[in-house]
Amino acid sequence: MIGFVDRVVRGVVDRSADRGNVLAATERASALVVLMGSLEHLANADNRRTGGLNDWTLLRGSALVRNERLRRVLDRVYRPRVVTAMHGLRVAAALVHLSPVRDRRVRAAASAVTVLTGYALGPLHHNGGDGSDQAAFFTQALSGVARASRRPATVDTALWAVASQATLSYLVSGWVKLMGEPWRNGSALLGVMRTRTYGSEWVWRVLRDRPALARVGEVATLVLECAFPIVFVLGPRMRVAYLGAIAGMHLTIAATMGLGRFLPAFLALQPAVLYVTADRRSVVPRRHDGFPWVLGVIGAAVGTQAVVRQVVDARRSRRPRAGQTVVETPAGSRLAVRYRPATSGPGAPLVVFENSLVAVQEYWDPIIAELGGDVATLTYDRPGTGASTAPGATLATYAEDLRFLVGRHAGDGPLWIVGHSFGGHLLRRHAAELGRDVAGVVLLDPTTGFVDRPDEDVLTAVRSLTDGFPLMEWSLRTGWGWLLDATTWAIPARQGRTDDLSPVYRNARLWRTGRAEWQAAEPDLVADRPGRRIPDGADVLVVTASTSDELQPAVSAAHERVAHEHDGRREVVRSTHDGLLVHPAPVRRVGALVREAIGVDR
Questions:
Q1: Higher per-residue pLDDT: 263 or 480
Q2: CA distance 534 to 425
Q3: What is the dihedral sign for C-alpha 510, 516, 520, 522?
Q4: CA angle, corner 249, sides to 39 and 211, nearest 5?
Q5: Nearest to residue 427, comparing CAs of 263, 585, 538?
Q6: pLDDT at 186 > cutoff 90
Q7: Which run of H or of E encompasses 420?
Q8: CA 578, CA 493: separation in Å to the nearest integer?
Q9: Chain centroid to CA 12
Q10: Beta pairing, strands 415-420 & 539-545
Q11: E strand or H helix at 573, and its extent?
């Protein structure tokens, strides 16, 4: 048995010294991902029809495609027959890679077809974007470059790039996991296995009854991923054994989580790793190893500019943005405020808006535009967001700040307050403390408690968001903020440039504030508090996004209960959670509901 294993290992090592064999193995493994993905899309054409996951009539308004001319081009490209034809081409290209065809020009053309169609279909296909498709796209692009050239140096550079991508993928994945509390306290695998999307009930039961086994699986995963660079110093046999353990990890994931495409996608990276770590003298002609030095120089340059940009963004994020006035409150806060008076003069209603977590006041611009000039509007950023600051801010001082702003800007007309998501939770806490009568409260898909008493499911759901904030803070503090684009968050819905908003989102202070707010609210959310904190006599309108209504029954039931507690009404609007303030059709509907509630005509 030992002799058989030794022969297998020796054969793998010998074949990994041949750049042609390595390139072919890389192509074939990634081609399996392409083949499986396109066959899946062809078998699920309903996803592209009206209301489907990949319905272009809905997706064309997303931040994935911002150029209107490109949208019009894609309107023609994303016709059913064209999309089907592109997937047919991808299937054909994958079969070429899986075949014994050796002509480099044919294989380069197959890679080009795969890359071009994959890029073209990217904005349309949201399912499949779980990492395997991206890895296959990257691998196919590099193998295509290698095939298009006759120079061994070009092939070696491409294979070094693939090996570097493998190292980065595992290293980042492992250390990100290590930063999460569930991976440190031993609850990660149980949490994953109990989910509907990636879970397995029988595996969850096994791990629940054998916590030591779950802990072994978590530690093994962390070690394999976090220590991946060790393959560059291990001997040939240990290197093959290490990569074999990685392959076993992916096989286990495929079997338990249903991520079958991950197996060939990441196995496609391993031949390149074996090639660049092989004895250089065994490669004929000799391997070119200039890529790591070039990568190091580029990395140093990128790191330097990232640090400089981080300092610049931190300063820019604290400047008042267009239309903002900084107001000092008796609680010691300095708040960036935008007040728009009504065109109808004194006595007009005042609508005050409360932001969600890690959201800026520009989020409300589309709704404000829908309300028209018959109402005065007031938006502001809470302390820790943008130009708003406050020493020792708490949820209690938030109430004092809001009371001061209302008293400063409210006239003789009725007062309405509108909150989205977490902002809805804050308004339920603070509405009775504003120092004057509140005519009405509008809660847009508000964050609420889900049950009458806390249990493990609720604790897990509430704390899962808290665990994500440290990762954002760490990545931004270490200079990765330049990769974050505010428009990808769909917050706000501004159609133009976001140069003034991106620095706010790239500042770790915003995410630290969000974490503090969420942790402060946890007791109320877990215990399903507050109760009747909205004053009696105030009109209450609860708007539920259709995705929340359909996919999260507990949230829908909580919204219904809040409306019933305050003798209000609930409306379900076809939209996603953020789409209520972002996408044109839901924004028009929400604007109409708010105008109707206030009693003003457009």
A1: 263
A2: 11
A3: positive
A4: 120
A5: 538
A6: no
A7: strand 415-420
A8: 9
A9: 38
A10: unpaired
A11: strand 569-573
The better pLDDT of the pair 4, 121 is held by: 121
The answer on pLDDT for 374 being more than 60 is: yes
Closest CA to 541 of 564, 573, 563: 563
DSSP string, 38-49: HHHHHHTGGGGS
Sheet holding 569-573, edge to edge: 325-328, 334-340, 376-380, 350-354, 415-420, 440-444, 539-545, 569-573
The predicted model gives 455-465 an average pLDDT of: 54
Residue at token pair 């019009």: 72
Helix axes 2-15, 236-257, angle to 10 degrees: 100
Q: Which one-letter DSSP state was computed for residue 377?
A: E
Q: What token pair was written down for 202?
A: 């029988």
Residue 463 confidence (pLDDT): 59
CA–CA distance, 353 with 417 (Å, rounded to integer): 6
pLDDT digits (tens, 9 = 90+) for 430-445: 888 887 889 999 999 9
CA proximity to 151, closest of 29, 274, 282, 19: 19
User: How many CB atoms sit inside 10 A of residue 483's CB?
Assistant: 10
Question: What are the distances in angstroms from CA 180 to CA 84, 197, 212, 262?
Answer: 41, 20, 19, 22
- Which among 27, 20, 22 has a CA at the least distance from the CA of 12? 22
Supply the mean pLDDT for the chain: 86
Are 331 and 404 a contacting pair, CB within 8 Å? yes
